[in-house]
Write a structure and sequence with these properties.
The protein has about 280 residues and is an alpha/beta fold. It is about 40% helix and about 15% strand.
């Protein structure tokens, strides 16, 4: 008898940025998702960091009403403090910037707590030319460790997303980061690796560190791709997740931004196609 729990699926609210936020949540409820990943991205999400920092509980209370109406749970709060990964990064060489970014993190963590979220994602940091590569990595790991410890005290798991342009743009550098950053997990997105020609087999080593998983189509040359073009090995990934009793969410994370052609897919159709494919794989695993 199989005693494994059913796989939980969520969808990112930033998959549908042109809809009002309450309409996004209503759509996800209509599509029968269990959870919603809430983006808190400077300049490009429904909820802005500055609004949360001002009053985390008030920001959460406004969202809670819509969540309660739809029955959705917050599966992750994804914080991006700058307009791009390099600005307001966690490992900025300027201590004043790092102090400011820590304050934003603390307030967004309070926001997530009020929403009942048990998971939070952030960016790992970038390579800053003003300091050495080792110093960049050390600062990034130090800040991520602090975040993980702070989140743990609140009963929240903290993860970084290793991504294109970050201090850990490939599996090897991501593993090195995780060795230095105590208590930090991964929000794992194969697309950032597959897009630059890294084989699926080279990414599988990161699966044991995943506490959250971003799923969308991808292939060499495309960070985000349709089901027809996808080369991400979801069958192997799902088999590993299910056999390893992974208890996090799989988030359908198609985005719609004018970056790396991530506005060239039909997000609604591709989200549904991939979710149904993943559900079938989970049932077979």
């Amino acid at each position: 008898m199989d005693n494994r729990t059913a796989q939980r699926f969520s969808c990112a609210d930033f998959t549908f940025p042109l809809l009002a936020h309450d309409k996004v949540l209503a759509l996800l409820h209509l599509l029968e998702f269990e959870g919603v990943d809430v983006g808190v991205f400077t300049g490009r999400s429904h909820i802005q960091p500055k609004d949360v920092v001002e009053n985390p509980k008030a920001a959460a209370s406004q969202l809670l009403a819509s969540l309660q109406a739809t029955g959705l749970r917050v599966s992750d709060v994804f914080l991006q403090t700058g307009l791009d990964p390099a600005s307001e990064s966690v490992n900025d060489p300027d201590p004043a910037v790092r102090k400011r970014v820590r304050h934003v993190f603390e307030r967004v963590l309070q926001f997530g707590e009020a929403l009942g979220s048990r998971h939070m994602t952030g960016l790992p940091g970038v390579r800053h030319q003003a300091i050495s590569e080792n110093d960049c990595l050390s600062l990034a790991a130090e800040e991520a460790t602090w975040r993980a410890e702070t989140a743990k005290r609140a009963g929240v798991t903290y993860a970084i997303e290793a991504h294109l342009g970050s201090i850990c743009p490939d599996p090897q550098s991501a593993l090195r980061f995780l060795e230095l950053a105590e208590g930090v997990t991964l929000t794992l997105d194969y697309g950032h690796f597959v897009a630059v020609g890294i084989a699926n087999e080279a990414v599988h080593c990161l699966l044991p560190f995943a506490s959250h998983f971003h799923a969308r189509g991808g292939c060499p040359g495309k960070l985000q791709a349709s089901a027809n073009d996808n080369t991400i090995a979801f069958e192997a990934i799902v088999k590993w997740l299910r056999s390893s009793s992974y208890n996090g969410y799989i988030c359908l994370e198609y985005v719609w931004v004018d970056w790396r052609d991530c506005n060239r897919t039909d997000n609604l159709s591709e989200t549904l196609l991939l979710r149904e494919h993943l559900k079938t794989l989970c049932e077979r695993a």
